[in-house]
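Lab manual, section 2.4: Encoding a predicted structure.

Procedure: take the sequence of the chain (283 residues), apply the prediction step described in section 2.3, and record the output as structure tokens. A sample record is shown.
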Amino acid sequence: MDRRNVHFALVLAYHGPGFRGWQFQEGQPTVEGSLRKAAAPLFQGPFRCRAAGRTDAGVHARDQRVLLAGPCEHSADTLAKALNARLCEGIAVLQCREVGPDWDPKSGSFAKSYRYQVWRGPYLPPVLHDRVWWIQGRGALSQTAIEAAAAHLRGEQDYDSFRSAHCQARHARRCIWQLDFRPEETAAILAHPDERCALASFTVTGNAFCQHQVRIMVGTLVEVGLGKREAASIPGILEAKDRQAAGRTAPAQGLTLQRVYFPGEEALSGVPSDARWPGCPWD
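Recorded output:
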């Protein structure tokens, strides 16, 4: 094929614990670094690599969106096959298509959805290793208390108390329209039923997230589910605008970037028709 300046849109999935996050770091195993290394021989010159967003060390992704753009003689299908043959274990290109020069996975997307899994029990099934937050103990978290607390965390508001002290975002104003807690079946994990054990997941969808925001919200809600914090305390935490007011940061390995949404996928994302935020694409 002729050498062309081509823009490729990738759907990337990865298992987080083997990497120090998405962003390239010299001398460290990162997802971006691994992708750049695999892609370099497939481009005939400098190329761009840009993701829909960064993920922290240990966080998984099943729908990271990535732009690779530069001089390339390969078709999208050939590039995907070549990348998968060269990528290290724990990363896979699920889809690859050619896009126009204006496509951008970060500025072009309007929302992301994350899933966080929690295992409660006296032991951790090996199949869940590096996939959940293991909270030692017996019995399920209180769904009623968590749902009452989560209701205060939905909407467009300031999440200063729920972001890392090292977060560099200019502000913490975000719009979150989904924050659900759901018990899950354990039959596919345990050969024998065990009432001491419980698996559950949080699903969080919003226009954007501050550093560690989802993990801090989950850590706080788990404290509520364990009876260590009252659901009614959440409004006060939000008003404090102080990281110390919220709960612990949940471990990274329980978190997965589930989906990135682009214009035309509003119904799929569940965004309310009246939702608005700074930079909202339909504002």
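Check your result against the sample. The first helix runs from residue 31 to 39.
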